[in-house]
Amino acid sequence: MILFKSEENRQLIHAYITDDFHANLMNTLDFEACHTTTIRQELRGLPTNEQASVLKALLKPYELPRFMLLFLKLNDSILEAIPDEDIEPTDSLRNGFEKCSLEVAQRIIGFDPVEDRTYINRKQFAEFLLTICRLTVSEKNPDRLLIYNAATGRWGDAEIILNRLIIELAHYVGGGERDSWSSVLEKQVMDILLRKAVITSVHKFNQPVYPFANVTLNTNTGRFVAHNPDFMAVMGSPVPYNPLAKAPRFDRFLNDIFLEDEDVIDFVQTYFGYILSQSHQSNVLLIGVGNGANGKSTLFSCLEELIGKSYVASVPLNNFNTEFGLEPLIDKKLNLATESDANAFKTGKLKAITAGESISINRKNKPEITMILPIKLIFLVNELPMLTDSSLGFERRLLILPFKRTFTAEQQDKDLQTALVGELSGILNWAVEGLNKLIAQNYCFQIPTALREASERYFGVGNPVGKFVQECIHPASGEVIESKLILEMYRHWMVENQFPYKGTDSPRVFWKAFAETMAVAGIDFKKAKSNGKMLVRDVRIDYTVQ
């Protein structure tokens, strides 16, 4: 029923249009006025075994073939018949079919040639598009039309698709004799669509699903289901699901980089599964740490490919507290950032995101919005960053994955990344297995020894003042100690534990962190000058310089 002039546009638009018409569309047309009787008679005059072949040849260049079958009062089951051979329609049948199809399109869209110009009914045009495309707008962003792609199972921005569909339809109904498209027509039709498309509540988006190339993963159950527009998925992966796919090279790679530590490999599998999940129930984020050629980047490049690069952000830690730092995280599944300089970071917004809490997001030249970001966080570092603010409560949320092996130039496989990309369907099966393990564990990660030890070391380094207070400072009513002695003891303690200062030995940084830590620990103290000396009251130090 629609004949595209541009094959590129046809291939682009095909997955966005549907033959699932509303009944009232058929009732708007006068069947006999469009020369359907002659076409039906000529088709029925052919032998039964030839009808399907001829009909398929007629419909091949057109979109919306089912509509034409309904219009011709033919059962669409005819297309399921397998013809004995390719049989071309007669010229009269082809010409009649082309004329009929054009008339149908002109009547539905509201095309009317008027003297030396053409007129297209904007309202009819828009209503037809609403019939053949699944369109919606989010209540949070009513100026942006979304359109459903049946091939990918995802909703996406409709502007490019609709603009091309409008120009193709306008040129088609114009018959090629005159340019029946204009930018004014396009804008007016788009404006009508914005005001007539269904408004979808923001809460209906980001359901617990994640589409892949051929099916959708229900992330609550760990099972695959057919694509469905009602899932309102706006993200997805191009990786195809194949239940029989394996990933032997990926398995060897994991054993290589993690020194055959099965507990660590099991953890990585469940974390890959957690990335697929829509749940924030685990309430964690991951930092991968290690110097040099250790496989860290290669491993998480596989994860990026698995998720789909379009839905992976790379916002560094330091940007999370800038004015527009969170905006790139909107409509992303994963934030995977390689940190070149993360000497310190604040944890407040990280806590809200990992917990799945609503958070306010400033957007450039747009109103601020409050939403839950359906995103998981991974940061890759050579050296662990410093923690600031009240970081003691952050310890249970932060998982540290150490990469201990370094590969020499001779040991590195230059074709490894290509080989692993070729196993993505197998890696998907492996990650879904990890998701199912995590679901069975009620979203509680089994923390292997290597990660637990890395965390224990880090929270000595990550919040050294807090660690010092925890180990060495105790409440002691009535006792008095000079403040400079506490700072001096802290410096000795840092050297003894081989922790880097990273500025925490400066009086301003130390005493700010000291006060925050004491407040969290519930230890009261007073710090004030007396006889020219700064004194700290009601605490004692249990530490001896070695």
TrEMBL record:
Keywords assigned: ATP-binding, Hydrolase, Nucleotide-binding
Gene3D superfamilies: P-loop containing nucleotide triphosphate hydrolases
Keyword Ribosomal protein applies: no
Domain of life: Bacteria
A GO term for molecular function: ATP binding
InterPro entries the UniProt entry points to: Helicase_put_C_phage/plasmid, Helicase_SF3_DNA-vir, NrS-1_pol-like_helicase, ORF904-like_C, P-loop_NTPase, Phage/plasmid_primase_P4_C
Limits of the SF3 helicase domain: 263-416
Transmembrane segments: none
A Pfam family hit: DUF5906
Record-linked PANTHER family: ATP BINDING PROTEIN-RELATED (PTHR35372), SF3 HELICASE DOMAIN-CONTAINING PROTEIN (PTHR35372:SF2)
Protein name as it appears in the record: SF3 helicase domain-containing protein
UniProt source species: Listeria newyorkensis
